[in-house]
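Job type: complex structure
Entries:
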Amino acid sequence: MFVSLVKRPERSQWMVYLSPVIALAMTLVSGIILFQLMGVESGKALYAFFVEPITHKYGWAELGVKATPLILIGVALSVGFRANVWNIGAEGQLTLGAICGGGVALFFYGVDSVFVLPLMMVGGILGGMMWAAIPAFLRTRFNANEILTSLMLTYVATLLLSVLVHGPWRDPDGFNFPESRIFSDSATLPVIWAGTRLHLGWIITIAVVAAVWVLMSKTIVGFQVKVVGQAPLAGRHAGFSVNRVIWFSLLLGGAMAGLAGLFEVSGPIGQLLPVISPGYGFTAIIVAFVGRLHPVGVFFAGLLLALSYLGGESAQITMNLPLAVTGVFQGMLLFFLLACDVLIAYQFRLNMTRGAKYG
Amino acid sequence: MADILIAAILTIITAATPLVYAALGEMITEKSGVLNLGVEGMILVGAVAGFATIHSTGSAALAIFAGLAAGALLASVFALLVLGFQATQVATGLALTIFGIGVSALVGQDLVGIAYDGLPKISIPLLSSIPVIGPLLFQHDILVYGSFALVFLVAWFLKNTRPGLVLRAVGNSHDAAHAIGYPVIRIRYMAILFGGAMAGLAGAYLSLAYSPLWIENMSAGRGWIALALVVFATWRPWRVFFGAYLFGGITIFQLHAQAFGVGVPAQIMSMLPYLATIVVLVIISRDINKIKLNAPMCIGKPFHPTA
Amino acid sequence: MKINTNPFGILKSLPALFLAAAMMVAGTSAQAEDIKVGFVYVGPVGDHGWTYRHDQGRLAVEKELGVATTFVESVAEGADSERVIRNLATTGHGLIFTTSFGYMNPTLKVAEQFPDVKFEHATGYKRADNLSTYSARFYEGRTVLGTIAGHMSKTGVVGYIASFPIPEVVRGINAFILAMRKVNPDAVVKVVWVNSWYDPGKEGDAAKALIDQGADIITQHTDSPAPLQVAEQRGVYAFGQASDMSAFAPTAQLTAIINDWNPYYVSRVKALMEGTWESQDVWSGIKTGMVEFAPYGDAVPAEARAAADAVREGIVNGTLHSFDGPINNQAGEQVIGEGETLDDGVLLGMDWYVEGVQGELGGQ
């Protein structure tokens, strides 16, 4: 008796919504097994992971804080991935956004004006775009693969930030420690939920999700991106410029990553540090795919990933589970989520005989 | 001066060897049309498995094999997901890295702080006593020799053997390969396992020879560099080798330059390997047709036999 | 020779006393069960360096006082740390140690929101009524290492593997070469920055590069034992960092600076239990046992041991300071003269090299 995958005649609309639920159920089951094996009370551990972080107002707000960069970058990257443009250097673009936007904040230190914050956002966006423009230029002009260039530029960006924060941008009253001044109030994102850290960036992120949705489903640009990604030849025949799609995808990704970096430094961090992001630019790639490259999917995937990070912290605090367990558990969660998507286009069939060619 | 040069080159060889293994393995995986971004995770499980085995058995051979097997085992999870369940390769690879970091840290909890002398160096009789060339080429541990051999083998395999040809065919057009009757899925399985095994060897080299110890996350991003090197090399084995030595070489060069007292901030010096890789890629990428010749066309695309 | 002038040192050599203390605590109050202590770590517990040593301190608190502890590891110094610290504060932790410089502002923010919870931040300079700071004068340890190096280096060149150009690291480099030059006025230290706190491969490569350029002693301000392994293989000497690393370099390790947070953590948790906890600024070194040393390696000759012991004694007695003048800067200009000593303010923000250091300090 064998199990084989058989393509459905058409995509199952049911499974679009059901498969994440199945994946979560399977994660819970294997989580129980994992925790039992480790001698941990599995009910308590699962509660710590998925429920405890959001049992209070502050937790809900933190979910938004943590998800903001993941969703913002993930949604922009998903556009590029649809076009087969492999920007995996969003982390570096985020860092440049933090540098440029944060640089504006330091330049206008002590200036109390409503224009500082918008200017910082422009700086963040331009910084990220500038960093993404390098791979775009090298790809379209010299045919250099953007996977390599964007990744390598991430390391360069981190070192650049390090030079600045260890040197010229140090807080003059900070005993030469590697931190900038704390930004003035006018350079800090307003909190939108009193008593928490949820900031304006969350609203903007939701707006960006909506905008990308419209862009991809209703405009000619979105159509071009999809065509060039799926059938470059057909795209060329239709007169779509592949190079223009490459530029567009990379610049959009860079802009949003840069904005996310600026949100981090002018929101929850409030100053420039030697390291701004714990890998949001890379995690956002997972978020994009777990969200099936669809803006709404990315939104929920970002929240789920954010929850799993908060859950990892709470499992350490209330259960004394080492961080390594969180990694294993997160990995399993992602495996199930990614694997269950197969149910949308395929179904499993039991073959009583070994008739099927690939049984 | 000559002594410094020889010593520096020896350092470059140890720095490049893990990159050679991991990148060549990944190159074979990609040649079959599959992109596995989980190299960092596979290196780490290889490293911890190798070190755990040397600690418990004392056998270097077993430890090397354990590293190889652990890398392949983790890769088989990836293979099952992307081939069996058609999961997205990019995301599954990244998830594999998260998983691998976690698993290796969990397994390695009790291995922190334990010392090992490192793999023995094997001097090849006669040859190793030749001045300059002897110490450079013939006084290494088994894994360094293995990395030399691997480049030849992979290059020969891809160019001159039938399975190599089939592998490339599968990577270039899975539909055509399937139509001719090649078992696309099975070939990709093997290629993924090979990639994992080589990443595992890279890990074993880290924890048994490069710096013989276990520390969480000790690969420190080498898996990512290996991935970049495959692209850098435009999927050609000798260029992978060249790229690994270029990257390792510039890294070591900048350390030497710092020790020499060059008046440039250390962070700027540390940017050199990354910038140099970009510059060289730009130079060698200009001939688009040559790249197309070697790049697997089906990379990243899922395959399901419809016939 | 062991210097037993510090109260913690005595306690440590007499475990029975600790036991008695622990029993007393257990006997006099039920507080041990009510108190939870939280720790926030910047790296994984398994880094065998900075975080590992703090975790040893946490375990000492559990063992000696019977107090429940919690730790959160690998907490990024960006946006995440404030949430983690706050979550510890809201889950019944009465005292929270945040063990990396980058947690300074988040710790202060949370401390303002939770006046009833006590906080202790390592290596920072911002304090409040419920926020202490503590740090160790590791540079005192470097002075001892430099003294040994002065006696033992034949080439007069020491290789120094450094992480990031922050005052803490620069201070250590300067203290080392100042002490070394007192023994060997021509000695120099070559510095290689690896831009990482731990990357065993790169640290080892840096050690090799330094040895290839004539260094016959290696010392480091990074976490992993890889440089010591390289020293062992190459037949040169080295100093361990944060822990006794002699297991990795049985002949090469001359001694090691040991970050010993155990007595400090135990004393602070005890103060909390007894209701005597007060906000303070602690920057202590060899005298209180916060900076300890591994036993001398066999290779260290009697003369070097005697000199090193004398330096330790001098530091403990206060007759000697790591930054006693005369001190010249890298360019050879005198900064302070004979009879003067650099004060803590200068040391805290040190961002310049003294004479004898080779290489450029980036970013200035």
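Summary: The longest helix of chain C spans residues 167-183. The interface with chain A takes residues 38, 44-45, 70-80, 82-84, 86-88, 90-91, 101-102, 104-105, 125, 164-167, 195, 348-351, 362-364 of chain C (CB under 8 Å).
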